[in-house]
Amino acid sequence: MTNHLAAIIRSDGIILGESLASQHAIHEEFGGVVPGLAKTAHEENIDKVIQSALQNANMSIEDVDAIGVTVGPGLEICLRVGCYKGRELAMKYDKPFVGVHHLEAHILMARLPPEKHDESITKQLTGDGIQSSYRAMEFPFLALLVSGGHCQILKCLGIGKYTIVGGTLDDSLGEAFDKTARLLGLPVGGGGGPAIEALAKDGDPKSVTLPIPMQQRKDCDFSYAGLKTSVRLAAERICAERGVERPDELPHQDKANIAASFQHIAFRHVEIRLGRAMELVQREDGIRTLAVVGGVAANKELRRRLNALCSDRDTPWEMSVPPPRLCTDQGAMSAWAAVERLMVGSSDSAEDQEVFARYPFSVSYIDGS
């Protein structure tokens, strides 16, 4: 996470207040995140972001019941700023503390009740105590996690209980979008995914021939490094035909065709690998529900195609995708993951909590699991 984010969320999923300090403008000119600049921006904005979220919720820190903060995986020097601030607040105000796994937070957003759900449901379930157990989807389910840094298929059995069914052997889907956007000279401050998605609407997805990755492998893993190379070579070939030196100098229609063709093949790769995983977990575990999470899950074309993948099966699957604004990194995901952990009796020691650049799912948080 390079933006600084905070949110106050209730245990029934109602988001009471949010705040964000964007770093897009800081890193745009460099074409990627500069760790030192990101850390400095975090330090300068963290208190303001927290206070803004509290003000938007019409609350003070004393009114908050618990504090959750992302502790990994990610850029350590940035994670440490947020973690230490969360630890400080939890110890100063004697609040329960949860160190949140960033990828689990993305997954659990699929369980967040709809933003405009009828609050009478909560009261019917729980009375006025707001300790709702209502969720948009129940365990177990299959999750497709696609973001700028991660590309995984996971069998989700419970809070802190995940089995990886497939993952990327090299680049993530979001990274492939970012690199293709840079190749075409698109602005990537807000992420390459939205830029490619917008440009692809003007293009023909069948106009540029690209290979579907890993067609000979019958597993559930991904690979996008070869597709990135194929896109670059195709773009260079079109440059030679047009008499221009670089892909970013191509006419709009050529760039749109490249973007549309790349997006089409990238998503076809997802459909094939995910379809295989769906067959596997349905046969072995009886699972027929899919969560699609992470920043790339905000892509409308991906949502449309995966919805068709679920509905067109012999035995249709149910699919849950967070609203687009809740797919990308935001404060509510960490706050909601903390709620989920606390409601199964799981928390951490604020005094001892550290951060992790790598944070494997193989470690379970739940005692006895």
TrEMBL record:
<comment type="function">
    <text>Required for the formation of a threonylcarbamoyl group on adenosine at position 37 (t(6)A37) in mitochondrial tRNAs that read codons beginning with adenine. Probably involved in the transfer of the threonylcarbamoyl moiety of threonylcarbamoyl-AMP (TC-AMP) to the N6 group of A37. Involved in mitochondrial genome maintenance.</text>
</comment>
<dbReference type="GO" id="GO:0061711">
    <property type="term" value="F:tRNA N(6)-L-threonylcarbamoyladenine synthase activity"/>
</dbReference>
<feature type="domain" description="Gcp-like">
    <location>
        <begin position="136"/>
        <end position="336"/>
    </location>
</feature>
<feature type="domain" description="Gcp-like">
    <location>
        <begin position="15"/>
        <end position="115"/>
    </location>
</feature>
<dbReference type="GO" id="GO:0046872">
    <property type="term" value="F:metal ion binding"/>
</dbReference>
<dbReference type="InterPro" id="IPR017861">
    <property type="entry name" value="KAE1/TsaD"/>
</dbReference>
<dbReference type="GO" id="GO:0002949">
    <property type="term" value="P:tRNA threonylcarbamoyladenosine modification"/>
</dbReference>
<dbReference type="InterPro" id="IPR000905">
    <property type="entry name" value="Gcp-like_dom"/>
</dbReference>
<keyword id="KW-0808">Transferase</keyword>
<keyword id="KW-0479">Metal-binding</keyword>
<keyword id="KW-0012">Acyltransferase</keyword>
<dbReference type="Pfam" id="PF00814">
    <property type="entry name" value="TsaD"/>
</dbReference>
<protein>
    <recommendedName>
        <fullName>N(6)-L-threonylcarbamoyladenine synthase</fullName>
        <ecNumber>2.3.1.234</ecNumber>
    </recommendedName>
</protein>
<dbReference type="InterPro" id="IPR043129">
    <property type="entry name" value="ATPase_NBD"/>
</dbReference>
<keyword id="KW-0819">tRNA processing</keyword>
<comment type="subunit">
    <text>Homodimer.</text>
</comment>
<comment type="similarity">
    <text>Belongs to the KAE1 / TsaD family.</text>
</comment>
<dbReference type="GO" id="GO:0005739">
    <property type="term" value="C:mitochondrion"/>
</dbReference>
<keyword id="KW-0496">Mitochondrion</keyword>
<dbReference type="InterPro" id="IPR022450">
    <property type="entry name" value="TsaD"/>
</dbReference>
